[in-house]
Every structure is written in C-alpha cells, then in structure tokens.
Design a protein that fits this description.
This protein is of the alpha+beta class. It has 6 helices and 9 strands; from the N terminus they run ααββββαβββββααα. The strands form 2 sheets. It has a 7-stranded mixed beta sheet, with no helix packed on it. A two-stranded parallel sheet has the order 5-8. α1 crosses α2 and α1 crosses α4. The longest helix is centred in the C-terminal third of the chain and has 22 residues. It is elongated. It starts with 5 loop residues before the first helix and ends with a helix. 31% of the residues are buried.
Length: 225
C-alpha cells in the first residue's frame, strides 16, 4: 500500500515546485493535480486494486440498462453469467445497422454490447444486442476511477490504494502539471521524464512481465503525450 498521505504528496509537490507558498499555489490546486495523476495512472495500467464488477439484470424486450455504479473508468469484459456467454463490444453504428431502428424485433441471448449514453442518475447506459429475450444476469467487469484523495485527519481516503513505489510517480506527474501551469515547459518535460523513470521501477514491483503495458504505452508516452 501507499506510504504517503495526500498531505505528504502536496508538500512534496510544493517542494519540487521551488517552495511556492500557499498564497501563490493553494493546497487544493496541488491536490487536483495529484488526483489527475492518480486517474491517469489508473487509465494507463491494469491495477488489480482498481478492478471491480457490477451486475445488470435484464428483462425481456428491453435493450438498454443503466449501470448501478458511477465509477466506471473503462470496461474490461461483459459476461452473461446466466447463459455463460461472453459479450463482445461494438459501436453504435454497428448496432443501428443491425437493428435498422427496430431493436425490439430482434430478441434472444445477447452477444454484443455498447455504451449508449448516460441515464437519469448520470451513470453509463449499456445496450445489448440482440435485445434480451428473458431475465439474464450480465456481469460487467471494469476498471474503476480511483476515489479522489483528500486532506483531512478524519477522512478515509487520504492515501492511494496503489503500492508504495507509485507514490513517487504520482508526485512527479503532479509536479509536471505544476510546472506547466507555472509556464515552465522545460521543467514540466523533465518532471515528466522523471515520472517515466519512476514508473518503470514501480512496474517491476507491481506486475509480471505480461502485465506491463507495451511502450510507448507508458505514462509519459500515453497518458501525458
């Protein structure tokens, strides 16, 4: 698990940025950079710690369903547990071409899914094809957006759930954002390169060789390119 708290990270970033005072650079702004770095790492790597699942129960004749969670960063897989069938992703264009505007006329066991917008609560909506012909339990395995870190002695989320080596990566990514905001692109780039070096070390402590993303899919080559 992480060693540094959000307050530790804010102080470290401030130090890297030349000791900017809270009058010129607030803790809240630095914390936003740290949380952006946290989310970018989650987007770039398959951390087991950030894998979750949610289920959708279908009803006959209904194609679209709103997920019950709002922290879906990206979908890993979708499986119809009732029929033991893996569903494959496709696009809205493919769905429209297949249904020709009449989704309810094509029913059966779903084998495709796509994100079709957001529902009334702001959570993602999934549309299945063919339109489910019965009650099926569909399991959505996803990469979740990490909960933002906060600075508070009584808050639960004061440290990242990632392993300790990722603390430095998060700090350096936030430093890169800070220097960019302060108008120093050269220092921003150097901090980004340092974050890339730190991510290589963190990868070795966190993943097997098959899990490490193919370069240039690194945090520098991908998330911050």
């Amino acid at each position: 698990m992480a060693r540094m708290t959000a307050q530790d990270m804010v102080s470290e970033v401030r130090l890297h940025l030349g000791g900017e005072t809270t009058e010129t650079l607030s803790d809240a702004q630095i914390l936003r950079w740290i949380n952006r770095a946290y989310t970018e790492l989650a987007s770039s790597y398959n951390f087991d710690e950030l894998e979750a699942s949610t289920s959708i129960t279908t009803s006959s004749g209904t194609a679209e369903y709103e997920a019950s969670v709002g922290d879906i960063l990206s979908v890993i897989s979708v499986v119809d547990d009732t029929n033991n069938v893996k569903l494959y992703p496709w696009t809205r264009y493919q769905y429209d071409a297949a249904t020709q505007g009449s989704a309810s006329s094509i029913t059966g066991t779903p084998f495709h899914w796509h994100i079709s917008g957001v529902g009334s609560t702001g959570y993602r909506q999934f549309t299945f094809y063919p339109t489910p012909a019965g009650t099926y339990t569909i399991n959505v395995i996803y990469k979740k957006k990490p909960t933002d870190l906060v600075i508070s002695p009584v808050a639960d989320i004061t440290s990242s759930i990632l392993l300790e080596p990722w603390d430095e990566v998060m700090v350096l990514l936030a430093v890169s954002m800070g220097w960019r905001a302060l108008g120093d692109d050269d220092r921003s780039y150097k901090a980004k390169m340092s974050a890339n070096d730190a991510s290589r070390i963190a990868e070795r402590s966190s993943f097997t060789a098959s899990q490490v993303p193919f370069r240039p899919g690194s945090i520098v080559g991908r998330a911050l390119r």
